[in-house]
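Hi support team,

I submitted a single chain yesterday and got back a structure, but I'm not sure I'm reading the token output correctly. Could someone confirm the output below corresponds to the sequence I sent? I've pasted both exactly as they appear in my results page.

Thanks,
R.
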Amino acid sequence: MALIDENDNSNTYSVSNGTPNITLDNLELNTTYRVRVRTLCGDDSQSEWTAPVSFTSEDKCTIEFVLTDSYGDGWNGNAIQVVDVKTDQVLGTFANEDLDNYKVSETNTLYIYVRPGRKIKFEWISGSYVDECSYVVRYVDGDVIFEGSGALTKPVTHTVYCGGTMPGDANGDTDLDIKDVLAVVSYILGNAPEGFIEANADIDGVEGITISDAVAILNLILTGN
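Hi R., thanks for writing in. Yes, this is the structure output for that exact sequence:
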């Protein structure tokens, strides 16, 4: 099997051990690839390549959890849970683990990958010895979402963005709500809304900002898609 990056037509991944199920990892985000397959025969010959099948990798943001336990025996049942605000789907649960069996301060770094524009919340799951827990939750480029020690007193709600843009966040306040729809409408009417970001507002796939962008942002708010 060969995996072809359509940006430069390079062969970026191949396998020849006959494994029937292949996991494609370390792909570039938001990149179109072509997959094709051929048979390697026992006499050192090979079949023709199959017709290629194309797919585009998802564009997701990487969020990093830097979790520390000051005593070194793990978080003892404490954890940070990530939940989709709209659907209540649990996207992941993250906790420090004692990986070296030494009772000294230990830090684990864990990751989650989330689509830009998705509204999520971070909730605390309570265990014991909560005063030993500290954390920094941030994007891999260093932008901190929140940090602290001990239990979260309330959930932290956040709209995911990365790469300098957040689809739909027309007014640039790093949140996705009806204010963004109003900002687009105001822009279309010839005004200059404060903090307006054209790249965030133009999400309908058609060049230029029109009323269809306002509708698309409203749909994003209502459905998360």
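A quick pointer for reading it: The mean pLDDT is 84. Let us know if anything else looks off.

Best,
Support desk
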